[in-house]
Design brief:
Order of helices and strands: HHHHHEEHEHEHEEHHHEHEE
Mean pLDDT: 96
Number of domains: 2
Structural class: alpha/beta
Number of strands: 9
CATH topology of the largest domain: Rossmann fold
CATH superfamily of the largest domain: Vaccinia Virus protein VP39
Distance between the termini: 73 Å
Oligomer: single chain
Strand order of the largest sheet: 5-4-3-6-7-9-8
Strand content: 15-25%
Length: 290
């Protein structure tokens, strides 16, 4: 096939090639890849169909096609993803933030604003911060907030720091390398986490786009998928202010098991939320009255 010479022809070529490779949404992937790789807006993709495509641009798209054929996710190829209005860079050590996790931000923001209104500030701890997505979104939406992002992976913390700086939030963001609470000091008004929650025996059966490209450390939740929740539920009380709240993302079938762990650890459930597919996704707890 002759190399596509125009933007419209390139988009059609990429869409066809992705479809032939068995990609589930070739048209959508083609649009997102072209916009990101060529720095074009969605409008430009529609209105600049006659725009000439240079050899370096085609080479960039052809390379992305090969990577996508290998099931590397679109946003991994682009090296970035939007989350709650922020643009976040990705690395091999970070989980790719997904739209369902924005629900955790939605549910924690009212608590952050309420506490900030009463105290004039709010301190947030993000356990397993990865790209920094959850914490940085909360800091962006709540100017009175400061936060500590904790992760056991040094590479993830480098990425989180870079994302904080790129989004102008580094003055209120601190990254700490820690195995959950082991290197954390002080108390916080809010604790949030999207921990690994997939059972070890299920990880190998995950879709290639997740299994091969998201870090295992961010996926594997142990034999029953609950190891991280146990660590959080048993350790959080010493780091949470008396009127503080904890919000966690969960797997679709973990509502009751995670709730039981926290309730055994001196917490009570105050809110639950479902994701866009109708599955249980977020639980919010506060300490039981003593």
């Amino acid at each position: 096939m002759t190399r596509p010479q125009t933007l419209a022809a390139l988009q059609a070529w990429l869409r066809l090639a992705l479809g032939e490779a068995g990609v589930s949404e070739p048209a959508s992937d083609a649009r997102v890849l072209l916009a990101g790789l060529l720095d074009l807006s969605p409008t430009a993709l529609l209105t600049q169909g006659d725009r000439a495509v240079s050899d370096p641009e085609f080479a960039r798209v052809a390379d992305a096609l090969e990577r996508r054929r290998g099931r590397e996710p679109v946003h991994r190829i682009l090296g970035k993803r939007d989350f709650y209005g922020l643009t976040l860079s990705l690395s091999p050590e970070t989980l790719e933030p997904r739209p369902d996790t924005e629900i955790l931000v939605d549910r924690m923001l009212p608590h952050a604003r309420r506490i900030a209104e009463v105290k004039g500030q709010v301190r947030i701890l993000d356990l397993g911060t990865g790209t920094g997505a959850i914490l940085l979104a909360l800091l962006c939406e709540c100017p009175q907030a400061t936060g500590v992002g904790v992760d056991a992976a040094a590479g993830a913390l480098r990425m989180a720091r870079a994302n904080a700086e790129a989004n102008g939030l580094d003055a209120r963001f601190q990254a700490v390398e820690s195995d959950w609470f082991s290197a954390v000091h002080g108390r916080f008004d809010i604790i949030v986490s999207n921990p690994p929650y997939i059972r070890t025996d299920v990880v190998a059966a995950l879709d290639r786009e997740v299994r091969d490209f998201d870090p295992a450390l961010a996926l594997d939740g142990g034999p029953d998928g609950l190891e991280a929740y146990r660590r959080i539920a048993t350790g959080a009380l010493a780091y949470l202010e008396p009127d503080g709240v904890i919000g966690v993302e969960i797997g679709y079938d973990q509502h009751h098991s995670v709730s039981d762990l926290f309730e055994a650890g001196s917490f009570r459930l105050i809110e639950a939320a479902r994701d866009y597919g109708g599955n249980d996704r977020v639980l919010v707890f506060t300490a039981k009255a003593s």
